[in-house]
Amino acid sequence: MDRTQRRWAWLSIGFSLVVLAVVLYLTVDRNTLELLLNFNPFYLLLALLLRTFSLVFWAFRMTELSKALRYHVGVRYAFLVVTANLFAGAITPGQAGGEPVRIHGLYRAGLKIGDATAVVLMERVLDGVVLSLMGVIAMIALGPLWLSLPPWTIAGMGLAWAFMVGLILLLAFAVRHPERVKVLVMRVLGWAERRFPGERLRKAAAGAERETDVLFASLLYFTSKGRRGLVMGGLCTAAFWSSEFFVASLILIALGQAPFVAESFLFQLIIAIVSTVPLTPGSSGIAEIAATSLYVLIVPSSIVGVFVLLWRALLYYYNIVVGAIGSLWVVRKEITRGPAEPEPEQVLISPK
User: Fold this and answer.
1) Which residue segment(s) compose the domain that 33 sits in?
2) How far is CA 8 from CA 12, 40, 95, 237, 282, in A?
3) Is 342 inside any structural domain?
4) Residue 133 belongs to what H/E stretch?
5) Which residues contact 206 (CB under 8 A, 6 or more apart)?
6) How far is CA 191 from CA 183, 186, 201, 212, 215, in A?
7) Total of domains in the chain
8) Is 348 inside any structural domain?
9) In a domain, 343, yes or no
10) What are the tens digits of pLDDT across the range 214-253?
11) Which pLDDT score is estimated for 291?
């Protein structure tokens, strides 16, 4: 981990810890210890297992999208790539740092850079589509609860929703007009090469035109012959987010509270959509404040701080620990394997 990554990591963790400390200070009181007497560690363990299993759905999504482009990426390998991307995602705004890690992992599995980029872009698109559909369903099914939310929550979700839809429309424009985007990319790379001369950037600029063609060809392939991969990827995406959201209900049960499945699902959906906006590293601080503001509507204030602490431990600090282990695995692989070449099990099924 270089100096910049360390700075981002400490900033992200520090901001999260400060906000958590404030939340605990404002919510913990004499009733907290009494409520904690009902704590059941079994359900907390179930929440941890479900959180881990949700990453398996992510790995299946990666294999299905790769299969749509006629590549074979093993589920075990995809799971390791997913875990490796968690750390970078946890310390960068909008979890954007995880994308390059996944692209590199797919490249090491035998995908062209353009194809690997297309897979990762489609992951983001599927996240946006599935979360948007879940939001519409939640608004219809939980209308009264939706209207009872604070105005800032509705406004924040609306802005995040607009941001997410904007990214999807931007990608759709890029697929529809690839030549325009290609010209823009080459101009930016040309400017960067003149501004920051270097061998590495020169090689990147030289291969950019070819890989850009591969990228747009793959994106178009997804919308035609690769549609089955999109459907399977969409199902895996829905399973992933549903698993992530249900973790909160299991934590509530562990704390002796009702699961509030429908309400918690809506709250987790709001937090997930707001977290897509790149405001703070790993959405640290924002997620804690949003969760506290929402769950205090249904959970006793004496226990809401402990709930937010456990929830962030499983959905944020878990990413840092597991992601660090996965990153070490990647470094070890890089050292032992040397130059990138496809592993025996990750071979091209047939040319596109």
Assistant:
1) 3-337
2) 6, 35, 12, 28, 10
3) no
4) helix 113-141
5) none
6) 12, 8, 11, 17, 21
7) 1
8) no
9) no
10) 777 787 778 778 788 899 999 999 999 999 999 999 999 9
11) 92
